[in-house]
């Protein structure tokens, strides 16, 4: 039979073994998590975006619920609206553009006043564009109008994005040019007819981001995007 001192020594001898086991278990968990995240990043078609998303998760997803709500009210795909927000402001609600555009969807004060007039909004002030909800409302309203302008097209999205960026009259001109090249107008033929490099790039980058979001499935308020890659 062991004496009391011997039992105490055995008990203390087991402590390092338990500590080693816990350390190894924690290391396995950390390495497994790292491997899983690395796999998702590599598997993604845009690993740089995913890395930034993980790094700034709050910025990239804090407006998801609001975007989903407002976009749905305007009969728009929330993933399209989010792609526009990403391109316009990188989710920064206090962003100011070089021509005075403001907020998440970079709305100009002139465009905002048109929205306010049409919707009978009294005493509208440009600084209200820094309010995420108001900004998304106005931007989605404009994008929704542009989608309606081109709903006769098989894919109205490229036309609507070009209008959102460059205005309806310019898109009309590009459509005429595209139709002269090929009476069977398609989204691709239209995109190739955009002679503003900045607008052409704008449309391409948003379409690519929109496709990226669509691959993740429906957008939700929590949007476990990385796990859905």
What would the keywords be for this entry?
mainly alpha; Lysozyme; 2 domains; 11 helices; globular; disordered C terminus
How would you portray this structure in words?
By secondary structure, the chain is an all-alpha fold. It has 2 domains: 4-43; 56-228, Lysozyme, CATH 1.10.530.10. Helices cover 67% and strands 0% of the residues. The protein contains 11 helices and no strands. Helix 4 (64-73) crosses helix 7, helix 5 crosses helix 11 and helix 9 packs across helix 10. The protein is globular.
List the helices and strands and how they pair.
Blueprint: H1 4-43, H2 47-55, H3 57-61, H4 64-73, H5 78-89, H6 109-118, H7 132-149, H8 157-166, H9 168-181, H10 187-193, H11 197-214
Helix pairs in contact: 1-2, 4-5, 4-7, 5-11, 7-8, 8-9, 8-11, 9-10
Short description:
By secondary structure, this protein is mainly alpha-helical.
The end-to-end distance, rounded to whole angstroms, is 60 Å
CATH architectural name of the largest domain: Orthogonal Bundle
The tally of domains stands at 2
In helices, the fraction of residues equals 55-70%
- Rg over CA atoms: 26 Å
CATH topology of the largest domain: Lysozyme
Low-confidence stretches: 222-229
The CATH C-level class name of the largest domain: Mainly Alpha
Q: Which percent range describes the beta-strand content?
A: under 5%
